[in-house]
């Protein structure tokens, strides 16, 4: 099966923070892969902008090293790399100081192509960049800006940031990026639900017992501990990544696969989220282990009450999901790196088999990483004589197996989302009111544990999290799925 590559319009893409880690690891190598695949054509250009004093040749050397390090060796074509590097330019700009570089950047802009500006910088600079692009008349009425998370740290700061951006750009021009929404499997969740009659009639509290969303990491916060200690797992992961996955699972069918139609339905889910009581929240910090530092050491704050792990039981107050809990968990230094959504269906209303037949639930698992794909477990008769014995077997679809070797050319999340920016398609990006609604639900949860003075529970590195998180489900007669690669 060959994936179709549809070229995008000619563009000028300016990457602010072009010498930073995100640009080097994801954005620039991703743009090279899209160029290699033929999706970037014509006279499109990529312009790096950062504080570093560097000329065009120096920037091209930096990008060449990034491609060598972060692109698979079998996709490094010297001739294509050379052609890609020819499309790069650079301008030295310090967004927080003076006017140097802005006139030069304006001169680089072409009037007849798409203009996009990627803010791969600290959120504190978003407003300054937006103001400078406006005051120097670099951005026009069709320009797009891409802003990275964190988009605020609470409702007040998110509203302030939205206000600043809205004073210079219309909502249709603002692309708030969440790379989880660019994953192939996340989008396939919508296809499975809304392009097949098989699941949607069952997609409600009558047939679904509960839903688990897990994002587990094996790494800690070393190297960014002081930053992470000001956010924690709730702000860093739940408010954005897990919230978006929850919305796609729980939303009503939109009238059309249209940016605002999809985001309208996601917004309804967020606004229907019920407050979460203290007993339905478990927070944790990883402990030291065999010489490896714990969270308190990594964060350089021995009194820290910031969580590196969180699990929540969430309810949605609407007809479709009344009584069906959603269990969310995410954490660092866990047993394996794995992200998945598991939809567990209820038992049949009446079993014609003896209890000894061994019934087990049907589960639809959507794997986001490391091996993207879907898995549906069903019950069948165990082969052989000896009576009716049931066993659980998977109907498994790994994208790499099902789609063949061409699957390697499917763009990763950042590649796909940047191409959507050039196309002007906001479907997979968060809208301003969506961000604010998420913070309106999140803030009281954080304020609650801060006012109570709750301390996170310690958990062992390489485990599945605090013991209290197991009890969160055990008391409901359920259990977490095993965290494994």
From TrEMBL:
Limits of the Glucose-6-phosphate dehydrogenase C-terminal domain: 190-481
EC number: 1.1.1.49
Reaction(s) the record says it catalyses: D-glucose 6-phosphate + NADP(+) = 6-phospho-D-glucono-1,5-lactone + NADPH + H(+)
InterPro entries associated with the record: G6P_DH, G6P_DH_AS, G6P_DH_C, G6P_DH_NAD-bd, NAD(P)-bd_dom_sf
Family matches, as NCBIfam families: zwf (TIGR00871)
Function: Catalyzes the oxidation of glucose 6-phosphate to 6-phosphogluconolactone.
UniProt name for this protein: Glucose-6-phosphate 1-dehydrogenase
Annotated GO biological process: glucose metabolic process; pentose-phosphate shunt, oxidative branch
Keywords (A to Z) from UniProt: Carbohydrate metabolism, Glucose metabolism, NADP, Oxidoreductase
Residue stretches making up the Glucose-6-phosphate dehydrogenase NAD-binding domain: 14-188
């Amino acid at each position: 099966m060959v994936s179709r590559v549809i070229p995008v319009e000619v563009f000028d893409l300016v990457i602010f923070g072009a010498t930073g880690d995100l640009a080097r690891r994801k954005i620039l190598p991703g743009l090279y892969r899209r160029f290699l695949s033929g999706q970037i054509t014509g006279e499109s250009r990529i312009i790096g902008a950062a504080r570093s004093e560097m000329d065009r040749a120096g920037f091209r050397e930096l990008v060449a090293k990034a491609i060598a390090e972060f692109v698979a060796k079998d996709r490094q074509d010297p001739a294509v790399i050379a052609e890609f590097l020819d499309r790069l330019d650079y301008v030295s700009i310090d967004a927080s100081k003076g006017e140097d570089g802005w006139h030069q950047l304006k001169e680089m802009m072409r009037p007849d192509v798409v203009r996009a500006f990627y803010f791969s910088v600290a959120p504190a600079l978003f407003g300054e960049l937006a103001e400078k692009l406006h005051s120097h008349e670099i951005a026009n009425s069709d320009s797009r800006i891409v802003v990275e998370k964190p988009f605020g740290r609470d409702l007040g700061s998110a509203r302030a940031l939205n206000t600043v951006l809205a004073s210079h750009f219309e909502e249709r021009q603002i692309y708030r990026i969440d790379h989880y929404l660019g994953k192939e499997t996340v989008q396939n969740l919508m296809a499975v639900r809304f392009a097949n009659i098989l699941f949607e009639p069952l997609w409600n509290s009558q047939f679904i017992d509960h839903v688990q969303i897990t994002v587990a990491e094996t790494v800690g916060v070393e190297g960014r501990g002081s930053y992470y200690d000001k956010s924690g797992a709730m702000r860093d992961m739940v408010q954005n990544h897990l919230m978006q996955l929850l919305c796609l699972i729980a939303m009503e069918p939109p009238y059309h696969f249209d940016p605002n139609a999809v985001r309208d339905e996601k917004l309804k889910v967020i606004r229907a989220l019920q407050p979460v009581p203290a007993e339905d929240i478990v927070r944790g910090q990883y402990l030291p282990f065999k010489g490896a530092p714990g969270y308190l050491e990594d964060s350089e704050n021995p009194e820290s009450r910031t969580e590196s792990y969180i699990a929540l039981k969430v309810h949605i107050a609407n007809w479709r999901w009344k009584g069906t809990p959603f269990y969310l968990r995410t954490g660092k230094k866990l047993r394996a790196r794995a992200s998945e959504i598991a939809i567990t269906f209820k038992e049949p209303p009446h079993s014609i088999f003896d209890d000894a037949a061994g019934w087990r639930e049907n589960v639809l698992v959507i794997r986001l990483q490391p091996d993207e794909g879907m898995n549906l477990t069903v019950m069948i008769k165990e082969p052989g004589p000896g009576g009716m014995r049931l066993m659980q077997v998977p109907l498994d679809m790994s994208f790499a197996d099902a789609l063949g070797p061409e699957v390697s050319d499917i763009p990763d999340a950042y590649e796909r989302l940047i191409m959507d920016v050039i196309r002007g398609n906001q479907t997979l990006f968060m809208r301003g009111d969506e961000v604010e609604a998420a913070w309106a639900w999140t803030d009281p949860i954080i304020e609650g544990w801060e006012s109570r003075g709750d301390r996170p529970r310690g958990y062992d590195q390489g485990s599945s999290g605090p013991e209290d998180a197991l009890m969160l489900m055990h008391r409901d007669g359920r259990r977490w799925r095993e965290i494994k690669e």
